[in-house]
Structure formats: C-alpha cells, structure tokens
Amino acid sequence: MTKKENPRRFGLLGKNIEYSFSRNFFSTKFSTQNLVNHSYANFDLPFLEGFKEMLNNEPHLCGLNVTIPYKKKVIPFLDRISEESKAIGAVNTIVWDNEGKTVGHNTDHLGFKKALTEKIEFIPKKALILGTGGASSAVQYALKSLNCKATIVSRTAKPNHLTYDELDNKVISNTQLIVNTTPLGTFPNINQAPSIPYKFLNSKHFLFDLIYNPSETLFMKKAKDQGSQTTNGYQMLVYQAEKSWELWNE
C-alpha cells in the first residue's frame, strides 16, 4: 500500500458541534491540496467517558482538535501534555507520537496572539477576559507573554476575579482591551451578549470576540456604537488550525 493510499483521519472533539469551523476548514484544505486520503469528522460526544471507545473505533486517527466543553476535561484522558498546555491548563490539539501515545497541545494562545497583534495598534497594559473556560486560560497566557495584565471576569465571585456586577466606569476606563471567551452571542443565539456596561466604552477601547459566527456579534455591535474598535475570532481560528496542522505533520 502506497503512502497516498494510507487513510489519514482527523477530527474535532466537542459537544453540540454541528456548526464546526474546523470540519469545514480542513475539508476545504484537503480538497484544494488534493489530499484524497485525508478526511475530517466531528466527534460529538455527550460525555467524555466515551472518548477511549471512540479512539478504539478510529484506527486511522492521526490528530484531533478539541473545543467546548472539553478543553480542560480531556487532559486526564491523555498520556501526556506539552509544557504550554500544563501552564494554560487546557488542550485544543491532540497528536499521536511515534509510540502511539496521545499528546495534548495548545495552539489557541498562538492563534489569539497572532490575530490580536495584527489588528491592534499597540498592546495595552491591562485587559479584561470574559469567561473562565479553556479559551480564557489560553488568552491569559498569550497576554502575559505580551506584558499585558489580564483580569478574569466570571459570573460567580472567585479569588482574583471580578464579577460582571463589579464592572463599573473606573474598571472599564482603566482597561483598553476586553476579550470575550464566552459562547454568548454564538449563532443561533445572536441576541445574547456578555453583560458588561457598554455605555462606558469609547474610541480607546478594543474588543476582541472569539466568536466567529455571526461575523459581527451583538457584543461587537454594542462596542461599535460607542466608537470602539472590534474584531471577531475568525483569524484566531485559522491560525490555531494551521498550527494544529503543523503539529500533526511533524
């Protein structure tokens, strides 16, 4: 059997992921590059307990992306994870090493960092990160590498976090960058948005929404109404996906 004939299977691990960016991105990539032995599928698992069985049923699996809600939860199921993934506490890419062991990596922080630095004129000293999931941890890691001090905003009170009720004029005025890592506003729930005091925003603010569908979320619209600059998460997804592809082909 030639290398061309050997099937190479990839996929996305998540829950309720029919909308998947990754499947469309990689399927298009395989088609345009004539990689006829490559395929990409969604592995939509209601519970992670089915993860090992899924792997046993996919003997040609070469790589996985991981999305909500499993970026943190998948770690105990892996043989090992990279140092960056340990620092972040989340995995969004899984590769198989030469011994067939599963290794968790994180490319979200690289995708976010590249997308942000391309869009923003200067990196501010302070930022707010809305949400506490795996993507939030990756964004915090990226901002730290850019010498930007990030404060996490969550719905419930936690040490070293702010709640949405604590976001007043002083906090917003002293923070030039706000990053939404929550799923609020994702299609089809496009009329939702994080509960921040948008009235305190101005032209000095930059709001980054990790959501890409719709291309302009309510979070972004409300910010634009105040004169703020905005961007969605599409380019971040492209960059993190390309890095995943590099890892799968090392």
Helical region count?
8
Task: Name the average pLDDT.
Answer: 94
Order of helices and strands: EHEHEEHEEHEHEEHEEHEH
Percent in helix: 25-40%
The termini sit apart by 22 Å
Report the biggest beta sheet as strand number plus sense, adding barrel if it closes: 6 strands, mixed
Taken from the alpha-carbon principal axes, the silhouette is elongated
The value of Rg in angstroms is 19 Å
Count all strands and give the number. Answer: 12
Low-confidence stretches: none
- Structural class comes to alpha/beta
- Reading side by side through the largest sheet, how are the strands ordered? 2-1-3-5-6-4
What proportion strand? Answer: 15-25%
Describe the structure.
This protein is α/β, with parallel strands linked by helices. 30% of the residues lie in helices and 22% in strands. The protein has 8 helices and 12 strands. The chain has helices spanning 21-32, 51-56, 83-88, 108-119, 134-145, 169-173, 218-225, 234-248, and strands spanning 8-14, 38-44, 61-66, 80-81, 93-96, 102-105, 126-130, 149-154, 161-163, 177-180, 206-209, 229-231. It has a 6-stranded mixed sheet with strand order 2-1-3-5-6-4. Helix 4 (108-119) packs across helix 5 (134-145) and helix 4 crosses helix 8 (234-248). The longest helix is centred in the last third of the chain and has 15 residues, at 234-248. The protein starts with 7 loop residues before the first strand and ends with a helix.
Characteristic key phrases:
22% strand; single chain; 8 helices; six-stranded mixed sheet; 30% helix; 250 residues; elongated; alpha/beta
